[in-house]
Amino acid sequence: MSLQLMTYLVVGATFAVYIAIAIKARATSTGEFYVAGKGVHPILNGMATGADWMSAASFISMAGLIAFNGYDASVYLMGWTGGYCLLAMLLAPYLRKHGKFTVPAFIGDRYYSNTARLVAVVCLITASLTYVIGQMKGIGVAFSRFLEMPYEYGLFIGMAIVFVYAVLGGMKGITYTQIAQYCVLIFAYTVPAIFISLQLTGNPVPQLGLGSTMTDGTYLLDKLDIILVDLGFAAYTAQKGSTLDMALLTLSLMIGTAGLPHVIARFFTVPKVKDARFSAGWALVFIALLYTTAPAVGAMARLNLMNTIQTDEVGSPEGNLSYEERPTWFMNWEKTGLLQFEDKNNDGKIQYYGPGEEFAAKAASYGWQGNEMVKVDRDIMVLANPEIAGLPNWVIALVAAGGIAAALSTAAGLLLAIASAISHDLLKSVFAPNMDDKTELMASRFSMAGAIVVAGYLGLNPPGFAAQVVALAFGLAASSLFPVLMMGIFSKRMNRAGAICGMLAGLGSTLLYIFIYKGWFFFQATAMLPDNPANWLFGISPGSFGAVGALFNFAVAFIVAWSTAPPPKHIQQMVENLRIPN
């Protein structure tokens, strides 16, 4: 059976399952639409949280970043997993105890202000829309290759599938769909990793294969370092970026994780506060299955790519892949525009090497005129890895289904968070408090449909790799929502003026910094300065600035709060009650 037919069958079967679940679990009330009726079992909720959490950035892009950035990309592993621990310990149980549907609802109640609620809605929509762009990029990449259609068409199909099961099912439908999507994505991620680890090291456990020896007795990471250095690239295991930027990016990802509204909303779906803690623990187990596999997938994918193009002696003209003899997988990915080659010296071979000074002189003596792999999109590495390794078609089709499942699951959660903020926190709570349940449910569905259209439009023009876009979203959540949630739970002195000023300062400073280097709506053509380390303030990248924005948020909030009247007594008592177990 051909790869394309196999992919259509596997992906089509998973889509049929998702839609069937959405129809069966159709939301009939606002309680079911927003929080699945608060009746989801903790283990099932942990699995759904894992799918909600492990987006296209985790499944498709994170291992790609690890493959090309090596040691430096470890910040994504540390930041995202560490942040989930913060969320589980410091926020989730307390927010579940408060009992409201959404993050802006908690902020509005805690800071006794509709203005605070409105500012929180703006922060939520800004971070969630940025995040969903990365999911749309992942959907488009997966469709464009495996269903052999343009990126744009793949994006539109993904939007249509999300529209059916998210608008129809709400949180109830999304929860049970995400459980199915978790099973698909984790199976799709680990099976190829096991095959490739066996091929390269003889060890079926990828996590152990990463530190194992290959058939020639060389450790896998040592082998990768040797090949990259010999070709003028930096060593895979060497630190290449600044320590300050890595530390701030890790912190930004951690506190951004803890401030993401679509993940927080998952803890409103369980019956009790105790269940929220159990859900968090189970979710961490399910997440760890993928996150501990990602470093092995990234390293093995880079090694296989280098060995494909450098077929014999490393760094010799005779060892380069002939363009006429390039493998099928190479030609397939060229069709997508995500992999591009340019024969700069017209010798019919592919020269793939780095900017290292020592190798540059050697390359010049061969008559080479620069790196001829002019584009290797990081987001293709996980999806292309099974093809590069020559695995069976059913494994390749499974990876395609897993990548799409990861993107769809997170996109649905984000879109629901946006729709809930608009329908419940803006319309129902502020502008139309007398709205009945049926009208609010209809408004929620229209809000989600509008959010899908906007997300699709922005997904057509993504500002970078999926994980890079998501890092910006985490920075926005870190600088705006995390501080105000933390202060709302652990500081009785924090008042509405401090919270509002803090959110505006954190979000405003981070958006300004991103716009300087990424442009308006993250379009590079409108950026004020080129996005490179030479122009960054103190070497801090746009994706890392969320941690600085969070510091601005905390500082401004406390200065304003201590300069104005304290919160009313009943609000201080509410904060006290949040922290006291029942």
Explained architecture:
- This protein has helices spanning 3-24, 30-35, 42-53, 56-69, 74-98, 103-110, 114-146, 151-201, 206-209, 220-230, 243-258, 261-264, 273-291, 294-309, 328-336, 357-365, 381-388, 393-431, 437-459, 466-490, 496-518, 545-563, 569-578, and strands spanning 339-340, 375-376.
- The protein is mainly alpha-helical and 582 residues long.
- The protein folds into 2 domains: 3-300 and 385-462, Hydantoin permease, CATH 1.10.4160; 302-376, no CATH class.
- A two-stranded antiparallel sheet has the order 1-2.
- α14 packs across α17 (381-388).
- The longest helix is centred in the N-terminal third of the chain and has 51 residues, at 151-201.
- The N and C termini lie far apart (59 Å).
Using brief descriptors, characterize the structure shown.
mainly alpha, 2 strands, 70% helix, Hydantoin permease, 2 domains, two-stranded antiparallel ribbon, single chain, globular, 582 residues
